[in-house]
Each structure stands twice: as C-alpha cells, then as structure tokens.
Design a protein that fits this description.
By secondary structure, the chain is mainly beta. The protein has one helix at about 80-85; strands at about 1-5, 20-25, 30-35, 45-50, 60-65, 75-80. It has a single domain (about 1-85), classed as C2 domain (Immunoglobulin-like), CATH 2.60.40.
Length: about 100
C-alpha cells in the first residue's frame, strides 16, 4: 500500500516557539517519517511511503509531531481502520482527516 502525506493546515504554535512539524506513519512494526519542516504552520510534505499489508493488522497510525531540541512532542494522531477503507477494493485518493489532539 502506498501512503502519500500531502500536508497539514493551520497548525497552532505555542507562545514560546513555532511548530516544527513532521509526520510518523506506523503499521505492523514498520515506522516511516516525513522530513521536519521548521517553523511551518501549514506544512506541505508530498512524501510517499510503501507498506506491505498484513491481513492480521487492521490499523495504521498516523501521528503529527513537533520536533524540539530536547524531545519531540506528539501534536495529535489518527488511527485508520484499514479493513473499513479497503472493503470496496477501489483506490483511495485525497482523503482529508482530522487529528485527535492528545491534550483533550
């Protein structure tokens, strides 16, 4: 399965620092990351990653991170139910998703 991370919009920075976002995609023990885009509240990555589907693994996690010198912090995440998405056997294109804020 090919996953393309296009971008994000209207990310909020803290009052002390602007966000340096990147995305992590995790599936069946494989983890991929986009490049870090410094000081960018509307990042555009346009990066693609390949994953081999495992019929036992039903969920993929996509998380948005803020890169920091001391330690990175998760901005939010999305858990995708692959079984539900793939049941119609058609290509999935240009899906927009909202992330869950870990703070709420």
């Amino acid at each position: 399965m090919k996953i393309t991370i296009i971008g994000a919009k209207k990310l909020e920075s803290s009052f002390m620092d602007t966000i340096d976002p990147y995305m992590k995609i995790s599936y069946d023990g494989q983890e991929e990351k986009t490049k870090v885009l410094d000081d960018n509240e509307n990042p555009e990555w346009n990066e693609s990653f390949e994953f081999v589907l495992n019929r036992d693994m039903k969920e993929m996690k996509i998380s948005l991170w803020d890169s920091n010198v001391m330690s990175d912090s998760e901005y939010g995440h999305l858990d995708i139910d692959l079984a539900a998405l793939l049941q119609n056997h058609e290509p999935l294109e240009h899906n927009d998703y909202s992330f869950l804020d870990d703070k709420n």
